[in-house]
């Protein structure tokens, strides 16, 4: 499936804020992830990013940074208590499970 076919049903297309998905700002990346949380094609989007070995951006609610997928971007300092149970990194099957269960 091509990226265009996936994005036809994607919330990122509706929102009109593609720049959020490729920002360096953690708050904007979190905003992009929130858009993905309500998206019906988030698993397909994540699978596409993993298959294509994409380096940057938010894909299916997962942040890709230098080619490494992170379920969330860790901010500086101690993690918030509310986020302590969330993984920073995950393998492919764990990422797909996290995104599918969201």
Structural class: mainly alpha
Tertiary shape: globular
Tally the structural domains: 1
How many helix segments? 5
Q: How would a crystallographer describe the biggest sheet?
A: 3 strands, antiparallel
List the helices and strands in order.
Answer: HHHHEEEH
Low-confidence stretches: none
Alpha-carbon distance between the two ends: 22 Å
Helix residue percentage: 40-55%
Extended strand count: 3
Q: Provide the gyration radius in Å.
A: 13 Å
Q: So what's the oligomer here?
A: single chain
Estimate the strand proportion. 5-15%
Spatial order of the strands forming the largest sheet: 1-2-3
| Average of per-residue pLDDT values | 80
Could you name the key traits of this structure?
102 residues; mainly alpha; 3-stranded antiparallel beta sheet
Structure description:
With 102 residues, the chain is mainly alpha-helical. It has one domain (3-101). 42% of the residues lie in helices and 10% in strands. It has 5 helices and 3 strands. Strands 1-2-3 form a 3-stranded antiparallel sheet. α4 runs antiparallel to α5. The longest helix has 12 residues, at 26-37.
Task: List the SSEs and their pairings.
Elements: H1 3-7, H2 11-15, H3 26-37, H4 42-52, E1 57-59, E2 62-65, E3 68-70, H5 92-101
Antiparallel strand pairs: 1-2, 2-3
Helix pairs in contact: 4-5
């Amino acid at each position: 499936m091509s990226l265009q076919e996936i994005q036809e049903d994607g919330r990122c297309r509706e929102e009109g804020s593609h720049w959020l998905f490729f920002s360096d700002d953690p708050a904007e990346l979190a905003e992009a992830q929130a858009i993905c949380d309500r998206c019906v094609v988030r698993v397909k989007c994540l699978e596409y990013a993993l298959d294509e070995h994409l380096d940057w951006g938010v894909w299916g609610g997962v942040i890709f940074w230098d080619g490494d997928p992170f379920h969330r971007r860790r901010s500086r300092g101690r993690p918030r208590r509310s986020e302590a149970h969330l993984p920073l990194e995950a393998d492919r099957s764990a990422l797909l499970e996290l995104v599918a269960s969201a």
